[in-house]
Amino acid sequence: MRILRNYILRECLQPFTLSISVLTSVFLLGYLPQLANKVINNGVSIAAMSQVFLYYIPILLGYTLPIACLVTVILAFGQMSSENEILAMRASGIHLRRLLSPLIVVGIALCLVVYILNDRVIPEAYDAQTRILQQTGSQDPSAMLEPGSFINAFDKYIIFIYRMEGDLLFGVRIYEPAPNKPTKTIIAQQGEFVHVPGKDQLMLKLIDGTSDEPDLSNPNNFYKLNFQQSFIRMDLSKKNTKTDKKSKAMTLEELSKKIKSLRKLSIDPAPLEAEYHRRMAWSLSPLIFILLGFPFAAITHRRAKTANLLYALLFAAPYYILSLACQGMASQNVLNPCLLMWIPNIIAFTLAVIFNWRLCTR
């Protein structure tokens, strides 16, 4: 059986190396227009942008490595199936479970690799990119913001936004913690930074929202005040010199600590919980994709590499789309993030078990 195991792994090595290289290169090309815009319009040096570009490689591996596992299994076993090698193995009394066993071991090992990427490598890459961009000298306050992150950069406020389009902010939450008092919360549908000429200040214009206002008879209680427009003055001279890491630049341990600290301030940490469980769930994706790809490759008898690659992307795309949709809902606390972020894994793993059981019992 050692000969069969080594043969299977050898057949998978070349398509894995090729697929992860091609996928990562293609995804990298998608960032070139964005980086070129910073060089041309923002005056950022080519050297700085080259460093930022290189840091995208480990970031993208969190996506491309699991997809490469799926592509590899479909390509390798699709080739073996089209040449009747799998049929010959079954005729020789070799059960399909034996073909799947070495793939499961490799899948578990790659799950550990992706876990390390999500916990350490990718956050370090995001943090390095942030430091490089901060060193370019940009004075744009929106550069300190990132959708889905709690930002402590502006004096006494903690800012959270769901989405950004240029200078426009959507789904704005502003928290104003106070010692021994409830946290004041402002929620707005939209927001925009407005510079104050000649002063080291800026105004945050908020549109269509609600604000917590203290009850004069009992300052520890708040009542909700609706507004169409509201302005908050932020003093940049009192800006924190060392801002908190953005959520994507935090390790899992740092995310866990941040979640606990926000809970102590009575701030909903659902977006950070969603990010935490997304990373944990995606760490299992290599094994899930291997289990999904094996039964499909074993029964399709296709040798066309282009067609198999398209089939692999059709398997992977719904998983990531559903996962990102669940993260969006979890960030808004539609359901418990601890449950919601694992739904794609539960669905994909259930389908993988059903398909492999049917294949192995035929």
Write the layout of secondary structure elements.
Layout: H1 2-29, H2 32-41, H3 46-82, H4 85-91, H5 96-134, E1 150-151, E2 158-165, E3 168-178, E4 181-195, E5 201-215, E6 218-235, H6 252-264, H7 270-282, H8 285-300, H9 305-331, H10 337-340, H11 343-360
Antiparallel strand pairs: 1-2, 2-3, 3-4, 4-5, 5-6
Helix pairs in contact: 1-3, 1-5, 2-3, 3-5, 3-8, 3-9, 5-8, 6-7, 7-9, 8-9, 8-11, 9-11
Would you kindly provide a written description of the structure presented here, covering whatever features stand out?
With 362 residues, the chain is α+β, with helices and mostly antiparallel strands. The protein has helices at 2-29, 32-41, 46-82, 85-91, 96-134, 252-264, 270-282, 285-300, 305-331, 337-340, 343-360, and strands at residues 150-151, 158-165, 168-178, 181-195, 201-215, 218-235. The protein has a six-stranded antiparallel β-sheet, with no helix packed on it. Helix 7 packs antiparallel against helix 9 and helix 8 runs antiparallel to helix 9 (305-331). The radius of gyration is 25 Å and the shape is elongated. The model has no long low-confidence stretch (mean pLDDT 83).
Structural class label:
alpha+beta
Low-confidence stretches: none
| Total beta strand runs | 6
Mind telling me the C-alpha Rg?
Answer: 25 Å
| Mean pLDDT score | 83
Sum up the overall morphology in one term: elongated
Work out the strand percent. Answer: 15-25%
Helix count from the secondary structure assignment: 11
Please give the share of residues in helix: 55-70%
Please state how the strands of the largest beta sheet are arranged side by side.
1-2-3-4-5-6
Major sheet description: 6 strands, antiparallel
Distance from first to last alpha carbon? 22 Å
Order of helices and strands: HHHHHEEEEEEHHHHHH
